Known about the structure:
42% of the residues lie in helices and 13% in strands. By secondary structure, the chain is of the alpha/beta class. It has a single domain (10-260), classed as NAD(P)-binding Rossmann-like Domain (Rossmann fold, 3-Layer(aba) Sandwich). A hairpin with a 2-residue loop joins strand 7 and strand 8 (254-257).
Amino acid sequence: xxxxxxxxxxxxxxxxxxxxxxxxxxxxxxxxxxxxxxxxxxxxxxxxxxxxxxxxxxxxxxxxxxxxxxxxxxxxxxxxxxxxxxxxxxxxxxxxxxxxxxxxxxxxxxxxxxxxxxxxxxxxxxxxxxxxxxxxxxxxxxxxxxxxxxxxxxxxxxxxxxxxxxxxxxxxxxxxxxxxxxxxxxxxxxxxxxxxxxxxxxxxxxxxxxxxxxxxxxxxxxxxxxxxxxxxxxxxxxxxxxxxxxxxxxxxxxxxxxxxxxxxxxxxxxxxxxxxxxxxxxxxxxxxxxxxxxxxxxxxxxxxx
Length: 305
């Protein structure tokens, strides 16, 4: 096995201009990949547009001695997603890995969420992951190889306040990834998800006033974006040739494998069920296995280690 896990591979990293995307792009380059840095240069809410973040990532890769090109096309439209993959083919002659990382936030409590807030987040996260993945799929099929690494979130896997759009998109990405893994396994193509943890603009509003709060924030700040990059590189590599259809997380120095939805309890009635029977017998029997209204911080309640 090469000491560089993705040596010679061509990798697209969407949202590669900063944060987790930049960290993944840099680690891909360190491990021998040629990188397409896709980033429209928008803010966290999707507004604006500048090539500067992608240019900064490109310069960092070049300083490492790596090769990188920039794509400023949006993932959220079919035609522009095609151009992202075409950029890889035109620049490097092939495509081996797609990292679906691009994202925006439009957090609003559900009963105040506008259609625009819903659609904009779904379009970037869920539709974008489909569009870019689909644009690469035929090339993967023809060459009988390829890997997808999608970014999900514990906001979708577990739950969070004020993120119906984001949570729905991120859980949808898990189903998309599993479907890709099932449909394309015969062509040697793999598809996995990462739920990343990282200190960023999204978590920087956590209070840090008391000594206890300051100590907790200091620990959270250890979860830098680069902590997610080694897992992404591994999943892109031939070292993970038998790993597909899975959901992982990287949290500081911890790695997690997530369960996936399966039946947890059943109850049977030989005569079938009436609504009254369900109320009197069926639901009381199932209730012991109900899943609580947990949020991500409730489940990941310990400090990162």
